[in-house]
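Practice problem: predict the structure.
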Amino acid sequence: MQCEIITIGDELLIGQVVDTNSAWMATELNACGIEVKQISSVHDDAQHIVAALNEAFERADIVLTTGGLGPTKDDITKHVLCDYFHTELIPDDTVKAHIEALYKDRPDVLNRLTETQWLVPKAATILPNRVGSAPLMVFHKDNKILVSMPGVPYEMKIAMTEQVLPYLSAHSAVFQRSGLSGAAGLNSIIHKTALVYGVPESVLALRLEEWENNLPADLHLAYLPKDGIVRLRLSQYSNNLSAEGGLSAQRSDSAAVFKQLLELLGDDCIATEDKPLESILGDLLKERHATIATAESCTGGKLASLLNKQPGSSAFYFGSVVAYDNSVKHNVLGVRQEDLETFGAVSEPVVRQMAEGVRRLLKTDYAIATSGIAGPDGGTAEKPVGTVWIAWATPTETFAQCFHLGRLREQITDRTCVTSLTKLIKYLHIS
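Answer:
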């Protein structure tokens, strides 16, 4: 099945709100075997919305929209959909009861504007929105489906998980009977991912050129570089079903092809899961029943935030010392004052002592320390902006390395975090 996503709202197009909905939706849809063909953002303008709907229905079997379902005048999506599907708004007692229960402790919210929320298009199938007042509306058109959802991210995620994806799964037979493009039902998309560290994208492409040129027609390799990591995604889209309902014999063996890719990558591949580095490191530490702490200067707590935000991080992550000032490096982490004065904060002796100090202080198995010049000021000819020292303290040794990680402050701190995590992941793989 093929899908298009339309996010609606002026706030998306003036940069006031970042569209996180479509990225999350695309991930979930792909996991269910629904291929997303296009994502669009449109103004709160009737003509613009209608034009986007017409174009989407020409290309896709499913159209998902978010936004414009509130009770205020700028929320026009419901009215536009009524006109588009030649229907009218009628009261829905079930939606009304839900809204009254939702706001029973807030009588001020139950006003004449909120009352418009239980008016729904007569031609729509209404799905419940457990956590919000705007109902989910499903329309059918020429064996195709449109689902309209609220734009509030947490409402949309619950709606997709609890209502929309199950609804689409239950109606996948409609697409198979209709003979529409992508009528393979669910679970017809496969993605396999390899994370590669330390190899530039162009160098990697030359290494894989012959193998990539001989890929079967139903397999495609994508290069997704960011901050020193190249994510290689091998994708397989198969829309053919055999008469028995299984995948046709023409489908390539993606597992065997992916194995060939991993052999070509060798030790440069650090993971075969499409997961954040901090999650990969966390899993490795949990497998070993090991713990970690961080001592940060230039990254200012960013590394700690990455490790801490994962569910279950308390099993392996103990804490951090953000030692931005030299007095904290000396008084808290035990860095020798003479080394700070002789070598400077951005140096191997200092970053080694930071890692060892926080490991000793928080009694962990491993520790990472960062110290660098993130700019835009503070660089010298000897240590220009982007110079970063990172150290890793382990139960048996401490090692450190100097890196030059760019010129922009955010770029430098992001790359420092990536490098810090990646090097420890590689160490744990071989230790």
